[in-house]
Amino acid sequence: MKKYIILLLLATVSFTFTACDNETEPGGTAVEKMAGTWYVTWEQKNAQGEWEDVLGGTVELNTYNTAANVPTEMWLKEGYLLNTALKVATNYAGRTFEMAEQTVSVAPEVWGASEITLNITGGKVLADAATTPSGMPADSIVFFVNVQGDDTYKIAGFRRTGFPADE
Which helix (H) or strand (E) holds 2? Predict the structure, then answer.
C-alpha cells in the first residue's frame, strides 16, 4: 500500500511541474490598433454646405485584418447602406486608409442599381480623439466615400467601448 501512495505522490508532483510551463503570448494582428467595432454616422452636405446625418443615427462598422495579416491592408465592413466588406489599403504607421475606385454589388432598393462604383479617401483612425455618449474618450474613425463620382458621404464615429451607456 505504501508503494501505491508513493507512486501516486510522484505522479501528482510530476503533473504539477508540467502545469507550470510558461504560456505562449499569442500576440496581436498586423492592424490591431485600427481594427475594431465602430459606431458611425453617414453624413452628406446639404444645400448650405453643412454635413447632416442621412440615416438618423449611428450604424455599426467593423474593421479587421485580412487573411494575409499584413499592415498594408484590412477589411472594412459596413452592414447598413453598403452591406458589404471592402478591402482597403492601409498605412499602419500613420493609421490611415483608402480604397481606389471599385465596383461593388449593393441592394438595388437602397441605391437604385445592383452595382455602384465607389472609392474611399481620407480614412483615419485617431487614438482617443472621440468622446462617447457616456463622456469617455475613445478612438475615432473618419473617412469619405464617393459614390458614382457624384455623391460624397462622410462616415465618422467612435470605437465600441462595451459599456452599456455607449451602446
Answer: helix 2-18
The model's pLDDT over 62-107, given as tens digits with 9 standing for 90+, comes to 999 999 999 999 999 998 888 899 999 999 999 999 999 999 999 8
- Residue whose entry in the numeric block shows the C-alpha cell 459614390: 147
Contact 146, 121 (CB under 8 A): yes
- 96 forms beta bridges with 91, 124
Domain map of the chain by residue range? 36-166
Query: Given phi > 0 = left and psi -120 to 50 = alpha, else beta, which region is 35?
Result: beta
Alpha-carbon gap, residue 55 to 67, rounded angstroms: 32
Give yes or no for a contact between 105 and 84, defined as CB atoms under 8 angstroms apart. yes
Structurally, what CATH architecture does the domain formed by 36-166 represent? Beta Barrel (2.40)
Q: Count of alpha carbons within 13 Å of 50, Cβ hemisphere only?
A: 3
152 neighbors 144 (Cβ within 8 angstroms):
yes
Q: Are 106 and 115 in contact (CB under 8 A)?
A: yes
Dihedral angle sign, alpha carbons of residues 76, 78, 81, 82: positive
pTM: 0.83
DSSP letter assigned to residue 11: H
Matching residue, cell 501505491: 4
